[in-house]
Amino acid sequence: MTTSTAATLFLISILLRGLPSASSSEILSVVDLDPSSPSQHATNIITLMCTSETCTNADENTPGCQQYITPLNACYNAQTLFPNDESWSDLDIYDTMIMMNLKREFYQSRDGTCAGREKEDGSTADMNGNDSFILPLDVCVGPFGPPRPWGKFTLVDDFDGRKEASDVISSM
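The chain above was modelled as a monomer; its predicted structure follows.
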């Protein structure tokens, strides 16, 4: 047996150890096995926008920072959620998780429909003018533009207005 074959067999035996047997009714997913994976039940993003690029350890009580709660996996228009707040454009937004990052998509529609978003069947309408960003969680990123050009994004379960450690799904 070659060293390569032995190494392959060793890795396969490690992978098979501890996995449910074929007769087991419960099959674990990669999310179940990875404790750092965000919860599939998360429904919101806390967006903390700040005037300073030192926002990684900031919170809603930090001077120059403002906290916003937005939905995950749902189209929204931030001007509808936060009327007359100059931090947000009037474009529709759709947030999803990609691996351990937030994908924030912007659409030219302004009515909470995210017109042009890919449909469940994979088809899509004209995407001209739409844009998106992949953003890491729980680190200060930017600049985005005035008045609060820096931001931190945190994935949370249902948000009822209180911040509890159990609500925060991902922290770096």
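Residues 3-16 form the longest helix (14 residues).
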